[in-house]
Amino acid sequence: MARSLQIVVWLLVLTGSRICVSAEFRPDIEYANVDGESLKLDASIPDGKGPFPVAILIHGGGWGRGDKANVHVPPTEPLTRANFTWFSIDYRLAPAHHWPACIDDVRTAIRWVKAHAAEFNGDPRRIALVGYSAGGHLAAYAAVTADDDTRVQAVVICAGPTDLVADCERRGGVSPSLQALFHRDVKIDDDVRTILRDASPIAQAKSNSPSCLLIHGTVDISVLYPQSVAYQKRMRELNVPCELITIPGGSHDIKRWNTLEPGYEQKMVDWLTRVLGDPR
Fold first, then answer.
1. β-sheet bridge partners, residue 261
2. How many DSSP H helices and E strands does the chain contain?
3. What does pTM read for this prediction?
């Protein structure tokens, strides 16, 4: 087992008193090995018997950059404070690995977490995927295409592209990131349009998809805000519970969202608590 680190988070509550929330952090745990490439995750384990609800964090970076511990990861602090067991995962990146390697890894990670959740005080029956940017796309896609082995109960999509066809058409061609992911050039022809549609969560959504929370900034120029508006509309047409937290003036930089909408992280935790159950 990888080395452990005890993290203590102090919370100020309305009364002015302090609550000490203790969590154990275990980095670099191998969840799979694919052709000699070790795929790892970090784990945060709340103090207590649990079982606590679980969040699997999927980093962004355009499917070709980033890792489980960098600036492209969804916020971990509010989950730690709220006594969630959480896992932040790595996955294979383009262009060395083309689609569907990254989504295959996400599904493998979900299976691993379900099998091992109890070892981390987590509840395998209460799992949410939380992804940012490209990680939001992977979280959404994994959620709507799940089978019994990979089914989760909730998904949070932070500025994630959910309609790859619409995104490329508004750009006038396939983006460099998607060219690397799908090993295609810039031209959008019928074959490429089919590939993009098949990999788009909005085209794969089903009525049994898990409850969904979208978080998006209104001035995002990397992934346009209307993508989340359209995705919410589609999910509601399917009678899937879907909420949208808007970050007024928010760009694609998730690290700045808290300065623009200070309560959004707590709203995310409150939503997860309603869907998955109180973690305390």
1. none
2. 10, 9
3. 0.93
Share above pLDDT 90 across residues of the chain, in percent, rounded to a whole number: 89
Kindly list the domain boundaries of the chain, sorted by start residue.
32-163+200-276
Q: What pLDDT, on a 0 to 100 scale, did the predictor assign at position 22?
A: 79
Question: Given 44, 88, 133, 177, which residue is catalytic?
Answer: 133
Q: Could you tell me the two tokens for 196?
A: 């993009």
The one catalytic residue among 42, 90, 163, 220: 220
Element (H, E) at 237: helix 225-237
Question: 98 near 183, Cβ under 8 Å?
Answer: yes
Separation of alpha carbons 110 and 197, rounded Å? 24
Q: Is 59 annotated as catalytic? A: no
Rounded Cα distance, 254 and 228, in Å = 15
Specify whether 97 is catalytic.
Answer: no
Segment 183-208 shows an average pLDDT of: 98
Q: 133 catalytic, yes or no?
A: yes
The class that CATH gives domain 32-163+200-276 is alpha beta
Position 198 pLDDT exceeds 60: yes
